[in-house]
Amino acid sequence: MAAKPSDLIYGVDDVPPPGRLVALGFQYAVLLSVYLILVVLVARAAKLSPEVTTSVVSFALIAAAVGTSLQAWRGRFFGSGFLAPPVYTAIYFGPAILAAKTGGLPAVAGMTIFAALVEIGFSRLLDRLRVVFQPLIAGFAVFIVGIQLGLVGTGETFDVTGELKPGFGWHVTVGLVTLGACVAFSIWGRGVVRLISTLLGLILGVVLGLATGVIGPDAYATIGAASWLQLPDPSYIAYDFVPALVPAFIASATAATLRTVGVVTTAQRINDAEWKRPDMGNIARGIAADGLGCLASGLAGTLGQSSAASLVGLSAATQATSRAIAFAASALLLVFAFVPKIGAAIIALPLEIAGAILIFTAVFLIVSGIQVMMVRGLDLRAGFAIGIALFVGLLTQVNPEYFDHLPDWLQTITSDMLTVCLAVAIALTLVFRIGIRQRDAAQWDATDAAHDELTAFLGREGKVWKLADDVIVRAREASASLVDHLKEGAYLASPVAMKASYDNLELTVILVYRGRPPPALHHAAAAPAIQHEEAAVSAGLAGFFMGIGADRTHVTTNNDEVTIRLDFAA
What we know:
The chain has helices spanning 18-34, 36-45, 50-72, 90-123, 135-157, 168-188, 192-195, 197-212, 217-225, 246-271, 280-299, 309-317, 324-337, 340-347, 351-373, 380-398, 408-414, 417-432, 450-464, 469-488, 528-531, 542-545, and strands at residues 86-88, 305-307, 438-444, 496-502, 506-514, 535-538, 552-558, 561-569. By secondary structure, the protein is α+β, with helices and mostly antiparallel strands. The chain has 3 domains: 18-232 and 239-377, no CATH class; 378-436, no CATH class; 438-569, Heat Shock Protein 90. The chain has a 6-stranded antiparallel beta sheet, covered by helices on one side. Strands 1-2 form a two-stranded antiparallel sheet. α3 runs antiparallel to α11 and α4 packs antiparallel against α5. The longest helix has 34 residues, at 90-123. The two termini are 24 Å apart.
């Protein structure tokens, strides 16, 4: 059971008093609503009327309420049980714009549902896809999403298509002031102010827009025409599937999965004073909940949502990580959904202000992506993989006609920058893994000095391979515990040989000796002939290896030679 950190006022399982619970829930509901800007931009790309867009926003609020509750739920198959609300995310924004321009909102809805199912599928294959779900690819995906979003935001902020319109200077000024305010609050703000810098910059931009006339009669008319209370109209909801957009939405689902891994891991660390390493089962359930939240968005006829790292950070800053806050926020989002004036206010927001918010978010994504890529450092292989992938992706923006003569199935990949970048990066990462495993070996007698020799060996090689200290400690303690067990049980008929290798994903320690396997590992041979051949004894005897602490184990015997392999996720 997780130990509640002493700096938290309300831990994950605490329930704040009703008044504070409503106030904290309102804070998250308002911050979640800011991201509805992306919903409105997709609706504009689909050429929807303001009335229909208001209904889209209302249903998007309902989907956000569902997604927030699903993530806070602590179920057997889904839900991390943390305050980790999803938001309408830049990860799905680029593909959603493509879908809106290709097949309207039905294509956005149908492809979002497809992406949600892909993410739910990834939650069941998390361990098998570790080659893809690694820091290099995760960070690169976030980095590319940031570039895509920044390009859109720059066009909107500087109003590059409206330089001849009246008041052009004021429009650009409002956009720049909004961006400057967001940046200023983020750099010089403290505590909660820094974490809500987007909201504060938005408020300042709106105030300046009202004062300069950028927000004028048209905006007042849109908001005034909306009623205070009304059931949203679902008549716009329809679904379409566009095969050409499959790669783009698979790429987005991959990026959303990787992002959720990081968000849930952060939530685990914040809520457990004794946290040592990620709980992969909890992460898998978190990914499933994130996928179900995205599914709710698709069913509501809008773009996908995914867990927001900033809101998890806000929970730490406010010292309130209670998952009850998520349910309170969900209830308030449902209330917002039946107040059309909220949707109308977002619809009336000038594109210059929306663009500034997009640029601000994009910068954070780019910085975050670089930081994630640098978690394990960048070697030459990684540099080539992401460098070449980035240049190919940029080519789709600089000279998209270059790809016009490719086969249709390849054009489905090259039509989206994130898709082609991830495809090239993953392919090159797999190719460059050839010869990547680093090895060293040592041998020692099963004596009292064995632990010291083993500690020195792992410490020396761990530094050469740039392994994290906790991985080295786990491998050292697990191997030492196993050697103790073998020595005390008199299972050794020869010195123990140890081999260690690292492939940028896992540290593998192999112990080889002549003798008998421990009773928990011993199994009866089916026939003498089989006893003479190498055969797996067990890879899932958790009873013995749980105390050792390896992520996976594998034991084989060949005559009297026993090989025990311990794998540690790095």
